[in-house]
Amino acid sequence: MHIRTWTVEINISELEEDRRTRAVARLHTDCRSPMLGEGEARRRPLDREVPEIGDELATARALADLAYKLLDVSAADIEQFTHKPVHLTS
Fold first, then answer.
1. Tens-place pLDDT, residues 53-88
2. C-alpha–C-alpha distance, residues 59 and 11, integer Å
């Protein structure tokens, strides 16, 4: 059995002046350069400041972005072997 380990590093930045939280998810594999997913959360002026919510939402969006990009890469890799268009869904 061959086991591969892929890691996802998530960096979260809080931009207080803009009431925004930004997350970048970076996938590290042993077979290609890192892939990035990005996500953002915005707090409305009347919302209470709860940093965890912004962190969670921005991270979820970054991971979703990364997942869709990984699906696109997978489809392109399959097309190289089948020579036919491929459309993958989550």
1. 999 999 999 999 999 999 999 999 999 999 999 888
2. 9
Minimal CA–CA distance to 48: which of 23, 21, 22, 19?
19
User: Tens digits of per-residue pLDDT, 1-25?
Assistant: 999 999 999 999 998 888 999 999 9
Q: Please give the order of strands across the beta sheet that includes 35-42.
A: 7-15, 20-28, 35-42
Q: Which two tokens stand for residue 63?
A: 């991971």
Rounded (10°) CA dihedral 58, 59, 65, 69: 150
| Residue 48 CB burial class (10 angstroms; 0-12, 13-18, ≥19) | exposed
